[in-house]
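Please review this one:
***
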Amino acid sequence: MMKDIVILTFCFCAFGRGLGVDGARGTTRFFWQVSDFHFDASYNSSHGDPTKMCHEGSVTNSTQLGIFGNYLCDAPWKLIVSAMQAMKDFYPDPDFILWTGDSIPHIKDTDINLEKVYINIANVTDELRKTFPNTTIYPVLGNHDSYPSNEMPYDISISDYYRHILTTSHWDSLLVDDCQKQFQKGGYFSISPHVGLRIIALNTNLYSTLNTLTDHLVDPADQFQWLDGQLDDARKSKENVFLVAHIPPGLFEKIPNFPWFHEDYNKRYLDLLQKHADIITAQFYGHEHTDSFRLLYDSNSTEKPIGCLLLSPSVTPWMSTLPGVGANNPSIRLFEYDLETGIIKRYQQFYLNLTAANIDGNATWLQEYDTKEDYALDSITPHDMQHLVDSFYNIKNNIFQRYLIFNSVSQETSPACNSSCFQQNICAITKLAVGEYESCIAGSKTTNNPSSTQNPDFTTKHHEHDNDFPKFLYYVFGAIAIIIFVIFLIIGFLCRSRRQKVVPPRYAKFGSLSVN
């Protein structure tokens, strides 16, 4: 009897473990992030001039352009619609969509006005809502979504900009009444999509180095004070927090000493992130158009990562006018997260090979990479991302070279990067404070950086991962596997013996059959 109980208990535990895994999958959810559409209604595929943002040019300079866009220009409507449809095709029923800003093209302020800004944003809003009629969309403003560009207003007593974004640009169709009320105070809001999670959507354009309206203020639109209060309240409510914004803190990885925030704002923002790091499970930004990330460390220990900032690349393929910054392929990002903990488990980056799409006349979006497969990450936590940074120093595994390719969304398939370039990327990723970044850049150069002539031995569709796993563990796991196998053999024998004792006699003759 005791033997039977042991066997049944073992079987129950084994099956119970399987059910537990399936049950855990029940807490897995997905959401999209899409950023930097930069829709240009003046893109002219028939007579556009690439030197003039693909707007209609003179007869001598005009040329036949791709219908889905050009690397020197912003996104035509066909590309906007294609990106949204790809999101729908790959995963049609997400929990929500994070739309991280910038719908306006990179054109001169003299070529646009505030009314056109509102209409442009409305066009993108309406198409996204039409594509996902039953999905909640959480939008944030980008620095180009204001007029003049970068001049994001802070004083609602003299500007009705935020009210018009709600009404004229149709964001009132995306946000519930409470969020609309808060949004009008400075372009930021907070909402809980489900129990245990709070999404805080910020207007970090108020802190931009290019925003001359706010550079003299202590707390533009009182957003710092509001954010601190929201995070305190989230802690009391035992909620995990997703921070969503357009411009990230820190510095650009493509250009040395290029900060995004005014230094005082950058420090105060980082102070708040460190203060509330225990409840902020993930942060989502756009703006750079490149695929990158940032790590935040404990104020008392530069060795302890406590925050992870994820920077999603853009839909627009436009090549920046900043020196040394190239173009990118259009992209969208799908996140997988745990409903209970708020931890990001993985994300998949999808992209459109713009050159191929224009040649074929058909937009075929593909998966560029998966963080589980291509970075070998179990999840997207500060600890996991620190491990990824550490792997950049190992030139044998080509992980840093892989990161460089993904940084341009595979537009640049053999990027060169010498030791200075490597240091520049590492410092931007790990040093978000201006002073710390400057010290990092000025510090000694690592001796094992990837070579500028190193070529990756993988493609963007399938990557071989070098294994840095300790070899002795293979023997340990091998021994464990053998022991488990032997245990199953014993259990199988016991189960068979038990079964033979209770089998009715009329079937006994089959047990005595012989091949002799």
